[in-house]
């Protein structure tokens, strides 16, 4: 294993500046995303009713084992009737038809909001990568504390024209990628778990139906999942298991 003596100036003028600037860019991106985000519209009663029945079906799947078998069968029969019918659909006439994004206001709004979020991710990262490539190309910054295979050499030693340098030594552009994927916990600590600094913001967060999804297909999908629920409980035949264990 080769030992390299790195100039301490690299830590002060390359490693730390890249780290600090990426944190500041993430904070700026988070705040700009909040400013550019459109005010969410209040859902009408029919839309809310349509989404809540799907949410109730999903909750049944997740909590089926907390119910008694008879109670579970009653709920399965209820959802079998409700989800097959069009009773809870907002617009039964459009069920199963492809969504026209040019005429559907909610779908078009979702696309615009998604483009805003993606642009807030792409533009800053492109600027940072260009800045690092122009000013810090060819620098070996640090040695990773864990071994890597040779397949990572082209990624972590990008811009360093050597063939015999161990993969643990990484370049400046590699330090950028490490920060890009490793700063999520820092952003969560500073901004909370629901932040737009580490990933594009979802314009439909909190909604059951995303823009362009067919509610009828989602209802039938939930119904299929409910039909295959296998009720299991830790208390099933617990008496016989206890007697069998202690009699032995």
TrEMBL record:
Keywords: Membrane, Transmembrane, Transmembrane helix. It is found in: Membrane. It is a multi-pass membrane protein. The chain crosses the membrane at residues 12-32, 126-146. The keyword Transmembrane helix applies. Pfam families: EMC3_TMCO1. The keyword Transmembrane applies. GO terms for cellular component: EMC complex. The EMC seems to be required for efficient folding of proteins in the endoplasmic reticulum (ER). Belongs to the EMC3 family. This is ER membrane protein complex subunit 3. It comes from Schizosaccharomyces japonicus (strain yFS275 / FY16936).
């Amino acid at each position: 294993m080769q030992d390299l003596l790195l100039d301490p100036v690299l830590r002060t003028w390359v490693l730390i500046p890249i780290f600090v600037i990426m944190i500041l860019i993430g904070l700026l991106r988070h705040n700009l995303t909040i400013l550019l985000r459109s005010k969410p519209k209040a859902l009408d009663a029919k839309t809310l009713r349509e989404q809540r029945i799907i949410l109730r079906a999903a909750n049944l799947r997740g909590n089926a084992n907390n119910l008694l078998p008879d109670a579970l069968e009653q709920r399965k029969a209820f959802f079998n009737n409700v989800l097959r019918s069009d009773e809870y659909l907002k617009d039964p006439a459009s069920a199963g038809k492809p969504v026209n994004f040019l005429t559907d206001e909610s779908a078009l709004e979702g696309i615009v909001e998604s483009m805003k979020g993606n642009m807030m991710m792409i533009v800053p990262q492109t600027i940072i990568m260009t800045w690092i490539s122009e000013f810090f190309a060819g620098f070996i910054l640090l040695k990773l504390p864990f071994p890597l295979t040779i397949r990572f050499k082209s990624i972590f030693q990008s811009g360093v024209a050597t063939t015999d340098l161990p993969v643990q030594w990484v370049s400046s552009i590699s330090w950028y990628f490490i920060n890009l994927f490793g700063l999520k916990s820092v952003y969560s600590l500073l901004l909370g778990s629901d932040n737009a600094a580490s990933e594009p913001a979802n314009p439909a967060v909190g909604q059951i139906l995303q823009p362009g999804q067919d509610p009828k297909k989602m209802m039938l999908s939930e119904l299929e999942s409910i039909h295959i629920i296998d009720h299991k409980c830790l208390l099933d035949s617990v008496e016989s298991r206890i007697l069998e264990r202690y009699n032995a």
